[in-house]
Amino acid sequence: MSNHSFDEAHVVHELKHFLPAQQALKDFIHHNSLHAFQHMKFYDAIFKASKIFGFQVHLQLPEYRAMYKTGRIREDVLQMVIANKKGNNAVTEWKEKLINQDYDTLNHPRIGQLRKYWKDVYHLDLDNKVHPLLFRILCAFLDQGIAIDSFPVVSKPFIESIRELEQNSFVSFFKTKVIRQKFITGNYSISELLKTIVGKDEYFGQYIFDQQFAHPGWSGFVSAVEDNPQTLLDRKQITLKELLEFELLMELDVLHHVLGKNWQPLASHVTVPPVNLFADVTKTELAEVIELWQDAFEWSYYDSVLKGILLASENFKTTIELKDSKAPLAGVGGLSSGGRGGGPSLQAIFCIDEREDSIRRHIEAVDKNAETFGAPGFFGVEFYFQQEGGKFYDKLCPAPVTPKYLIKEHDAKSIRKGELIYTKFTHGILSGFILSIGFGFWAFVKKLQLLFRPKMSPAISDAYAHMDKLSTLTIENKNPADIENGLQIGYTLDEMVTRGENFLRGIGMVKNFAPIIYFVAHGSSSANNPHHGAHDCGACSGRPGATNARVQSFILNHKKVRAILATKGIVIPDTTQFIGSMHDTAADVWGYYDEDLLTPENAKRHLINKHNFETALNLNAKERSRRFASINTKQELEQVRKAIHSRSVSLFEPRPELGHGTNTLAIIGRRQTTKGLFLDRRAFLNSYDYSTDPDGAILTAVMRPIGLVCGGINLEYYFSRVDNIKMGAGTKLPHNVMGLFGVANSSDGDLRPGLPWQMIEVHDPVRLLVIVEHLPDIVLKAIQSSPEVFEWYKNEWVHIVALDPIEKQFYYFKDGAFAKYEPITNASEIKTIHNMEEFIEGAKEMETNNIVHATEENLPVYLLD
Amino acid sequence: MDQLLILFIAIPMLAFFATLLWQNKSEKAIGKIVRFAKVSNILIALSFFVWWLINGLDPISHKVATLYETDHFVFAIQLYYDEVTAVFSIVGAFLFFLVATFSKYYMHRDEGFKRFFNTILLFATAYNFIILAGNFETLFIGWEIKGICSFILIAFYRNRYLPVKNAFKAVTNYRISDVALMLAMWMMHHLTHQNINFSQLGEAKEIANAANQTGMAIFIVCMIILPATIKSAQFPFTTWLPRAMEGPTASSAIFYGSLSVHIGVFLLLRTHPFWEDMLWAKIVIIAIGAITAIMATMIARVQPTVKTQIAYSSAAQIGLMFIEIALGFHWLVLVHFAGNAFLRTYQLLVSPSVLNYLVHHQFFHYVKPTQKIVSKIKASIYMLGIKEWNLDTIMFTYLWSPFKWIGKQLQFLQSGVFIAILAAAGIVLLILGCTSQDSIPSLNGALPIILMSIALMVILFAFSFRKSAIKAWIYLITAHLFIMAAVLFNAPHINLIEIIFYASGVLLAFILGFYCLQKIKKIDNDISLNQFHGYVYEQNTTGFLFLVSAMGMLGFPLTAAFIGIDVMFTYVHSNQLALIILLALCLIFIELSAFRILLRIFFGPHKKLNHPVAFRSS
Q1: Are residues A771 and A810 in the same domain?
Q2: Which residues contact A353 (CB under 8 A, 6 or more apart)?
Q3: A179 and A776 in contact (C-beta within 8 Å)?
Q4: In this complex, which of A390, A747, A848 lies closest to B25 when CB atoms are compared?
Q5: What residues are paired with A803 via a beta bridge?
Q6: Are residues A833 and A704 located together in one domain of the fold?
Q7: CB contact under 8 A, B364 and A629
Q8: What are the pLDDT digits (tens) for A704-718?
């Protein structure tokens, strides 16, 4: 923002940059809440954002201190952190400051300083007079189908629509005739309005920022709709500039109405020069103290994880040696579902999502010969998907990718039922009368049912409803002229081969194929949850990924694809079959697709596998249940599983699952690096085999989405956790659904982007630690491949450590280079779990959701027996 | 068996007190108490109903206790049970059960878990007080408690601005309804020269006819229709209802979707014997109902937010109920009430699902809208609906602004010296009034009015005062002195004990409130009423104590002042219109001023930004 003349386009552009970027809630795409500051170093950025907008950007000082007292922040780590940043000599001095020094922690943000003069000088609460009607008009204009009588003017830009209404009506949104006339004639400009309201040019920019950041939710949404009109199914034309214009007119209207002629432009009362919102922030000692605390909090966990990885890999080596000595005996006569000799009994490819960490661990525990993999959940196939009968396409790949392909569903069998409760007739006079008398009593019975017998209903978002189980998909394109709305329907053979090959190489699965390989997508069913999209697959633009699992299975089962792959050195045996499936992370249900394609032998193996998966799901449910107060973890496994399932369909349950809460790690490497570790569902796990990629060509591709997807999720959770009120959505209990695209508190409130309290209360606000199993120079090359990727690491929004796979040495990336890092945790400090079920039953539940208690629920790293 | 009626009230009340003993994190213990209350509530409602059915459906009247009695005034807790009570108690018990069960999971780990259950138990007590009340005094106890519960639940998220603003909006409406009901009681007392029971309303009507006191009867009926209209969010008071949906969805469901908002319907049903022969009253009620039904439906049709839409639809149905009552279809009303209450509760409870459901619907059934011709009428109706027919603005401009304006003209009251003189004068007058009222007979007619006007002026000044909260608080007690003095000079033979009732309660409240404000002032020298301070964030207990003292200050059924105020009314004669209007205004604005102090100092966004503080627009 310049201090001198006013450049409208520039201010609007800057404004858009800083406003929240969340789109309509139906597809929730996680992103860094402070994306506008990402070009700066993490700490500089957050303190600056805090100074400008008044956000809380870290835990509060007393909270760090309390965690230090409980041992959650470790003393040895704290000392290490201080020594690294301030030098060995300063440890005592800084430790004293951190633990005991009093600081003035009050924040005095720059935003809002100018517009507060309305109140000070004229006792006029301008926002109070303007906001309610402004929000209602915006909401009515953007509404996707709550109102029975929708906005009367369709397919026209915002201002034009309102103008048409105004011209055509006996009543007006404006209180004064003058302003109404001004609006209708269109005889005004933003600069002119600002001239009248604010007066002096040099204050215009500040005024606009003050004004729009008085309701960042609505402004941000308008800006998001302007940039991505497809976020609303019923598209609307609106721009942030129009909002500015209209709001200024409404303000002027109120000023005229309330103050008549007795007022001067705001700036004439202002004696201080305009504030440069974006001026540099001087670093205070308090900021340094917070930095040290935050680093110590983060490394208290990271350090033990790194040590754990070393210990686990030693254990792994011994196990392999033992196994090898017994090799001739293995696989003889046993009821292994696996086939040939010592190969894996099955392979299952999951999403990298940290929620799949536990189910993978349980599968490996139930079936020792099973192998699991992790890959971004769109499984290397990017496309738009059209459900049969659907009027729109769903994008099924990471948000920044724009696919050129369309996959259509046919032969869907199930019919979606309606739910009478949402009928618009309850809002009529007479129909409402008849329905409240007739339907009201039935509603009572329904309520009893939903309380005591929760079950799936059309009112509940069902992950499996996204694609019919028995439908067919148009995956293969035999005629490139098959194009719909500019999208090619299906992939050609070559395109399929490319996608199949890239995917398999990416996760290092190029030999040793099991008889059945499962693609396990994930989705989440939940009830009464406007944020349900935030629980679905982030790599599929916030949707369930079942279609992707089916598509990639089809490709890798395709005979011609396999023939070409074989020429490229990937030989998939004829007996091997891929099968698509999906794990419901809330209900702990696992559904399979195209099971009828399995050969008779594989069908038998599949039966055994399914049985094992069910056991694993039971255990997974048990592990998850430890965090849910309403479930007794010590019940029979089946009971726990049932209770978990009914949570996902319970309308009274604000926490069907905990989403990505607690995510902290992203580990890119072979499964054996993490197999022996209990990571408490905190790690994104991406399979990657350095030995198949000596020069790091594949790694570059693997690393591309990590910052954006995992880092985005992690930072959204971080900021929603540390300031749930300004950057998060607050508690979801009072939320009111606005126009089917967002939530707000009450009927007159600002939209609330970000995550609700119920999703983040278990989250430890620490940055993501990415651990890559490869040589540091190769990793450096991979992350430097593009500036957008490198920015995440260079500016420390995520940490990265390279693990030299041969030397077993860690290298931490700092100030542009990798340097050796030796974990300081003692081997004896990392305990071993001998009996998983007992261990889970013994884990403590948080006493309250205060951070000090909440972080105690998150378990440290353990070794597995 | 009649004695068992008391259980309806005693059980939720005991449960309320029991939950107070636990901490917020003791969810299991609180859950158990609530379960006990919600199950017993149903059992009592049902078993009493069956017993009443077997015993021939005769209305039951039962006197529980007499709290205060003189030759001309009786304050008794009287209960009454008939078919209206039966339906309201059973529907109420079931809805309470459903919502309490729902909330046990829904409210898990909320920072206000305990506060929520405290409040809904207190609400259940108040609700049963109202529907079982056998006289106006008993009903009024429930009426006031329910108002406070509503306030607490609307302002549940008290460190945000909008809940606080909207809670105040509801309170302003509620207070008018409270005072109107007091006036109805007052006039009824003058009409019948006794504190009559609801079972005697028919007789009261006869008395009015016989004595040719139609003026008094009209006044009473107006003061019954007014509170019914307000509490059931009828025209022109409808807008507070959608604004009240600020608390957790579950509390909105039970309060504004169902039980609370139908209380106006109950009041009309209960008092029906008194006005059943008055054609004009029926016409007024039908008109209010019809206007609301049509207007609220038109507003509901254009609302783009789900809870607002449900609120207006519910108000429209209640409008129909008003018509049904006036037409005498009482069983239809009862069925309609039950159905509407169940339906709206359900709709509100599942309202967050609407996003998923309707987006899905849109996904499969979307048809690109085509531009239809927008007629002038259509555009106007649409815009009126979005603007909610300007009801909010009209209320503000014509109801509240004039009083604010008066308050602002009284700046000369600001000086500390002036208020000290005024307070001293008040005390002197009070003593004078108690000892030697007969000695100044010449002024007897005008003096009470003058004193009451001074009281009102002082209150209105406090109401618009922007500076020190402590000063405003002192103004309120000064005003109380003048109110008492006015009443003393108005009645030659007042009972000293009644003044003591009144004064003791108010004084106690004043001292407690004064202590709380001093405590805040010590933390931070600035306790001006010009902004929200949000101190409840750091001073939870002080905030609670101040709430108690604010309630005490206005004669809430906490202290003896509650009886004192009721008795005080009886000393104003039925022909002293000016005096009664002044008194009513005093009572309205004392509450509003006291709550304004409460909200500004303790509620709203916390002023210290060393932790996450809400945007004002959220």
Answers
A1: yes
A2: A377, A522, A537, A538, A585, A660, A684
A3: no
A4: A848
A5: A773, A810
A6: yes
A7: no
A8: 989 889 999 999 999
